[in-house]
Structure formats: structure tokens, C-alpha cells
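Appendix B. Chain record.
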Amino acid sequence: MAEKKTIDVTDSTFDEVVQKNKYVVVDCWAAWCGPCNMLSPIVEQLANENPEITFGKLNVDQNRKIPMKYGIMSIPTLLYFKEGKLTDKTLGALPKKTLESRLEKLKS
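C-alpha cells predicted for this chain:
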């Protein structure tokens, strides 16, 4: 099994992670969420394949401030940041190919 490339993000570490890294994708998830559990291994694969992007995981049950700030009403939601600014958001357990094209857009 490949080593875990995602980092755990919390309400208190979120801003630092987003500001410190050029490209950031945050997976907003919960343990009880079936689609989140389907998306999780895809996010891990993408993290391994895109070392220039920081991938974070934010548990919405343990962190309420950030989901409220970004209007997250359903999970999984991926938030895409470039140089500290939110550039994109995807909802649901999307196919890997769809997410790869979003990452290309993020880096362009």
C-alpha cells in the first residue's frame, strides 16, 4: 500500500495550509458518508500522482467552521485553491478522469 499523501486539515489549520501551498485540494468528508468512502482512495491516488498539489482531508463532523464558510451543504465536496484563492468546487463522488481534468485546470 502506498504511503498516505493527504494531510488532515482542521478548522484551525485550514487557512495556513491554503496560504502556504500554491495548489491545494481539500476533500470535505465524513466517516458515515458512503460516497465519501468511495472517493477517498481516488483522492489518495491523485495525491500520489500530483506531488505539486497539496491534498487535505477535512472531517465535516469534527470541523464546522470551514464547511459553513464555504457553504458546503453536501458531501463529498472538493475545494480547489490556487495561491490561496478558491478557484473551483466539485460535489459528489466523481470519476477519477473528471477530477484529473479539474486538476489540470487548477494548474493552468
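Further analysis of this model is presented in Appendix C.
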